[in-house]
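Whether sequence alone determines local backbone shape is best considered at the level of individual chains. We regard such an encoding as a compact summary of how the chain folds. The sequence in question and its structure tokens are set out directly beneath this paragraph.
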Amino acid sequence: MPATEPEAEKVAAALQDFLHRRLPDGAAPQVTGLRRSGTGSSRENWPFDAAWNVDGERLTHRLLMRRDPPAAVVDTGRDREFRLLQRLADTAVPSPEVHWLDDTGEFLLRPTMIVSRYEGAAHRAVLRSTDPLRLGEEGRLALAGRMCEVLAELHRVDVDTTGLRAEFDDPGANPAEHELTRWERELDTQELEPQPELRLAAAWLHDNLPSPPQHTVLVHGDFRPANILVRDGVLDVLLDWELAHVGDPLDDLGWYTAPLYRREHFIGGRWEPADFLHRYTELTGIEVDPAALRFWQVLSTFRLAVIALTGVRNFCEGTSDRPTAPADAVIRQVLTAILEAEGT
């Protein structure tokens, strides 16, 4: 739902005052074009331009406010995401440049961070034959390969030397068990009525916990075509870091290869899951255990179902203005993932 005019005016006034406080004397910031773009599941996006004086020259900057909605389907801290992106600035990972943070919402009415705004487009169907960006099959194939390279670059980031490990919860001896416990607790909190299918799935996951990985990595948590910004046919920026954490590299691989979105993540006959995994191993040296991958495929879909239930709860309680579909279809996909894992 787009922002109302009075709301947008109130946010614009708060934003201009915020910039005035953050910039040097004489900068004279002016905000233009502020609007709310889309609804956002866990952040509201507010693109805008801001001009201010720098060394006697008036410069215009393309910026984006990433602002908390009244209720989110994923509850994550802005300060941690802000520091994560700061630390990634000196790595090979193409991440957004961050500028300012209002973690409490004292100045910008709700918790908010301000990042650079980039040219390009993001679309979940960018690898499909119906690709709205019209890259052509070879262009889509090149983009798919580049996505694998970016994921490998992400997993090669040293979480210790960059200080990233200290930003996140310790996943303990087994990141798989840690993540399963996390999302079971979230299910306990969010379900409005009993979810026997998801409880069955949780029992299967407990029975099929994989061994811990040789080492933990920075996990994006929602790595997919919908979260890459494509400019001139090339992957420019990896977006949406709300679910990032330190964990098992197969966490991201399980989500990317899960049955639910396989048509969107691969190119039939040219770029199949086996091609993706082979290239990933070439780039990282990480061998992918099939049984462990199946666990993470199921857990990734389980997580999505819990997030869907959170959206339902928020809408039913009137804390979100985003209409949401019933979670039944996603829950069925969890069972489908289990059946595939069992080979039935």
